[in-house]
Design brief:
homohexamer, alpha/beta, 10 helices, 14% strand
């Protein structure tokens, strides 16, 4: 990914106006819509929606997440989103496009995962970074599968913000609680390459999972550790660890890592999480200091969101990640 | 408008899937998006969004109405919406396209009306019927202006469903309570060509307005008259009257003609209105028995809507109007 | 109550503007605020708020009802609210004032009822008709007590719209299910003078209550009877019956007589009720054909209301009652 | 089913109080909880929750429907729910118990259907009428399978209130749009034994489905026909038809047959439906005039419900059905 | 309370499934339901619901709090809730049961308090720790009365998290603003044994109350002091102070100690409070370092809660307190 | 402004009770209502509502802000609001009155600004400090105009809490994004006298604006700087800077400076902002250490607020500012 000037040969999608609420719902940050895989060539970043929630254990509705994240834009055209802190506009530095959503009938976990895997393959083949808007966290399995196919199972590490470890030991039936353990079980991810941050809650099987995976090198930073050590110190360790494991990092952000006050619109909320500004700074820093090869921002559930808080925070997470990537690319 | 088979030479807008909640927000009923005025040639019906609410006297928010009406589609692609009662699919019979929204900064009443007038001119020049999704009812002024420019001030009549007559006598400052009186005052509409149905409420100036306009031939059917005579009898009279006045009819539907239970999402609700199924049948009948030259469905305010009830009803109003038009075209 | 021209010597309450949403929350329909009992002389109608819900059996919140009903005005000053169907503006024909709310600490059922009884005494002494905005329906007890003190227990009849009969047989502890039976037990009301319309639901004790009270002349029109016979026929009977029993009528409207779709904001909703336009027409007719000596509109619970539907309907109920009274006074 | 006095040998579930909001959430109408299949002997009616929504095409959330319907009770203990119009308390006449919910991990359509089929088998073996609280409408498939196993595929007819026919022609993947066509395709139901009432909407495949199934004897009464002919006349026909086809009837009520104003909490709402009081009367009448062998009330989605309107209406639908059954049993 | 292995001789309440949303609403964390006082023997912790809000000064609705807290469980059976930070599962270490709710008609403050006092007596007699789910904070009076009866008025201290001191000087009529001052006035609590943390707001009488009670040894840590000194330092002082006053501590948590962003669902919110993760850590620490003899978590008002945030936080407060108690018991 | 004892010769507005929810909606904190400009003499602080949102770029609804802020009072009469941390009751020290709202038809930006300018002139002429409740932030223009007229363009500085700088370079059409740059362009404010705190977001033009205005001495503290340096250090600098520029300070608080979790009810939210308790402390400190000549608290949008969180926080911001002013006046 180079820091060249943007060219945008792809047709702009524009409804004749510049108000953020005008026209059919926008693409992500009003970047060009590129539906044909063949047209992805030249893109640096490709946004894909994964509107699925069939793998949700508690409150469903994340299928409406991708559209809500796109609609959370309050700026409107043009597709410029400068980052004040970084002094860079990622949409000027990076060629970012929106590839639309996967999503065909029958809308089962299996069929949508298969569609997503195909789409991710196109993106990775084009040399671009996929940004998946969820949707429930089960999408981490097809992401790991696609990344493994592209870079090898040891070719990438995972930085994972989440209230849940998503590494349940029973992996026979995929749900949004076991995508990473399923990926490991299938050989698409190395346990020792994964770090989870912000884990909490009172799940019966969690202690066993943490013990099992801890013994295999997987690192889990529970929320209490974040509070005690400070997020900065935790990120220092995480960055160093991930850099030592693999040349690139898949950044996976489950919005329920935030406290429910900051992310009411998630399916399995856990009290006592991060504040939004902590998450934004953390994501920006990781994206700037690590080589991001894939990003997901998942578990946005507009059916229980309030005043668009959660969708807005997810939108900002993507922009901060892009900002960090852009700043890194211009170093 | 003829009943020929659809051709749809215009590019389909499709996000790679067929789920109703996938992709950036859809065009109306997933019909093609046609942004260039020059490309409107051949269309029978052109949907335009008018995302404005600056002329609202009470609760604003109708600027989000056009997008909400489009998002109220629960069917998804393909763009087929057969009408069970009529036995016809209007999207097969009529070439319907979505022209996007007007909507540029500065987003004032004046600037958005000017944009809308321009867009309506393109549509009418193309020989198509404009369908305006509101937005507040002030759009009736640019609609009357555009229709007057095309057909002459006496060349069209108005069938107007509304809890309010929208014919306030003070027309110096346009707001959503005086678009029709302003249009009459400006010479774009004949008072005697207008019928309003469902008017009610307790506005101080309403009796004077009804008396003034009644003396000039404008017909107002207050809600009590609808209840006493029955909606069918009222429609008989309305159809006969409108047919006698002008060769074509602009059908203007303010969603607050519905009782607030059926349309909670409007800015100035008045208790005691129509039920949704009454409105749908009435719109269908007028569209089938009259020659509709323009349609608006306005005052959908998603900021106070509940479970999408109002947007869904507005979406159905458009489909019933299209169904009636399609049935008429195939006679 | 005579039909003389309004004089309004009382100071207008005005916040320097005429927008319905400007200033501290308004009095009812922006009529004058008259707090001193001595200043009530000359008033025809006095609005009093009864912000209490401590006698609620299920969902509380009706304490916010009076303010919500006042805030439901979408018109703003001046205090003119013409009735289109009746051709009369009740605020021009009748001298209507707002006496504020009862409501002091400690806010118990007993203390608030005592305050209300005192206030009602002032209003009735002034020869005016009290209009009580509720609040839960327990206020019917102090209303009956005050009316009995003024007119005698047989001097008034009760027309009662409600999903519940509010005549539970256990009257030791007042709650919102037994105000009328308590009033009868206390000798403030004659059972044979009461008619309830719209009763329904599945309460264990209801059959016994209906049998008991029916044997004592109390008439209950259950919702099924309304549907079968038609509301018009029911009202014919009700009017005739009430006229034969007493020279004047206390009209008591529990908003839960409406179907929950039309009145979501009530504490004990019962599916299958009236539509708003039915209730408005019924109230108007009773107020026009009977001599109304008191009115309450109760059980408006803004904490569960939706888009202000219930408060708006209650506001219209008062205006229709005033309209009927005004039309009657000008006969 | 005889009209004997209730005995209730089963242990009452009671939390030490009689307030409707006290204790862990109640069983349906506070009837006894009977979890062991062996203990179902002697029951006349068995309520089962089916908390699933994985087969939902649009807005999920019906998995919370069964609990919401139970919580919609505003009466509390004791388990007496007399029907004012019928003069009978179904909980006194019939032995009604709550069998809890099906619902184990993994919560897939297939696994939950299998659990439900097993539970229905126990109920039918006990000679009782199952009442299934949904949950999405896909449960109609296991219901038809269980009824077919018990009574034969021609041994029961279906009275189906719904905005959708639920007879999509593609039955490879079960979703909530094809349970009945799947049941027919699997030989568990006779097409000619099914009547649907209230169908509407604009689904691309609906005309073909209606034509296909109409040719095979399936009767669909679209909403327009209900309006034109009147619900009473339609029910006359439906009752006669069903009686002529089979000795017993499975009554299936999708709450989206109601207009969205009356049932905002459903996943695929269609404007222009029945009013709640129409549905309650219709259900009561069918249950009184036909021999009901099974009931479902489905598609209650609390995640988008408003003030509990939809859950409350569904609760009343069950009580009216039980009332009709009780009245019939005492003939 | 010893750290022995759990035995759970009491019957499990289970609806045949393990989904968190299946079946009638659950007991707290799916622990056994034990309704008979005689069966409480052997329990370490007994959860009781106090569904009352009649003593609420502003927004009522806390009567629905106990059920909402129980429903906030997103885990489902089995009743295991390990604490990741403490490395202990309190439900394995402690025998926790749910005793249901108090709650009979008439539902007055007095009658419900009397019921609660009786229930608390049973729990304390059984040697167990009562955990009261509120409900409004007036329950602190019967709690203090019951604790005083069991341990003597000086036998326990109070650690009180709250935005309000709840020690109003006028104690003639109990409301949720004076339970502790009433308890002191009645001789059930020593002023010097009470510490309140997080007090803020702008109440006219607060300065006088703080001065009055401060002179009598009652310690109030206003929110500003928490911010200035840090919560850790404040807790150090609180723990030392309480340990010096009495051998055991009643921990009383009013959820409005949280900022309204973290606890929107409370009746008298005060801007500027604690974050959820601060409260969880504080409660855990107190429960671990002090000998907790009673706990309440009150003022959860689901009628204004948002996405279950407040109920979820209250649920976690209980689990953290149990976690701390369990960790202490295993020392 | 002196610290004399309050006299309150102005008539109290009181509805006969002391419950916070009784009567028509209150004045701010129940201070006297003084509508006549001539009666403002002797006041120290004058509250004015500015119910306008026509200059809003995204979600409108702030026109309802002033009423919502007044209604957010949960205390009720009397008008005493002591500040626990400061040990002073500002309503006892300062003579605070409520001047009602500006707000006449036609409700355009221009007309409402003109009304506000006139009202501010009266307040400033009376020697009082205006406190403007918004409404959208465009009111900062008439405020600057009025202050400039009174004190000269260099006679006051601006302390501005906001997620947005509100200094867009295009000032031809006023909207809520350019009031300060318009004021500077019009010569009513010196760029070097303005400090903005908390700015963030991704607006295309922001970098150019910051560069342009930074070159002219305007200081912008973006949110990242607040986090890095700490709010205390930032305030140190801000206070010193403002004191060096002008003898008095206009404090302008856009509630969107808060994170959306703490202020969901604003029109253009930006994730990652301040917590409420940070803002309250900051406002208190500035008001205590600087000489405040005007205050606005704006962009409260009740149409999207949640449980009154945002209005409550705005109410507290005013009380903390008054507290700081009162503490300063008593030095």
């Amino acid at each position: 990914m180079s820091g060249r000037a943007p060219e945008h040969p792809m047709p702009r999608r524009d409804y004749g106006g510049d108000l953020p609420y005008a026209g059919p719902g926008p693409t992500f940050a009003h970047v060009p819509l590129v539906l044909e895989p063949a047209d992805l060539a030249g893109a640096d970043v490709v946004v894909i929606g994964a509107p699925l929630d069939q793998a949700t254990s508690y409150r469903p509705g994340a299928r409406f997440g991708p559209r809500a994240i796109r609609d959370a834009d309050i700026v409107g055209p043009p597709a410029a989103r400068p980052n004040l802190a970084l002094g860079v506009d990622p949409l000027a530095v990076l060629r970012v496009v929106d590839h639309g959503d996967v999503g065909s009938y029958p809308n089962t976990v299996e069929s949508l995962h298969a569609e997503l895997r195909t789409a991710l393959g196109h993106v990775l083949d084009a040399g671009a970074v996929p940004v998946v808007l969820g949707g429930d966290h089960s999408v981490a399995l097809p992401m790991a599968q696609a990344l493994s196919a592209r870079f090898g199972a040891h070719g990438f590490a995972v930085a994972h913000f989440d209230a849940h470890g998503d590494v349940e030991l029973e992996t026979d039936v995929l749900d949004h609680g076991n995508p990473f353990s399923t990926a490991i079980a299938q050989g698409h991810l190395s346990a020792a390459n994964k770090v989870a941050i912000g884990v909490r809650g009172y799940w019966p099987t969690a202690p066993d999972e943490l013990a099992y995976w801890g013994a295999r090198g997987l690192r889990t930073v529970i929320m209490d550790e974040v509070v005690e050590r400070g997020l900065g110190a935790v990120l220092d360790e995480v960055i160093e660890r991930l850099q030592s494991r693999a040349p690139r990092v898949y950044l996976s952000v489950d919005m329920d890592v935030l406290d429910p006050a900051f992310a009411p619109g998630t399916g399995t909320p856990e009290p006592g999480g991060l504040a939004t500004r902590e998450l934004l700074l953390a994501v920006r820093r990781l994206a700037r200091e690590l080589d991001i090869c894939a990003l997901d921002v998942v578990e946005v559930n507009p059916m229980i969101d309030v005043a668009g808080i959660t969708a807005g925070a997810a939108h900002a997470v993507v922009l901060e990640a892009l900002g960090g990537m852009a700043a890194r690319s211009t170093l």
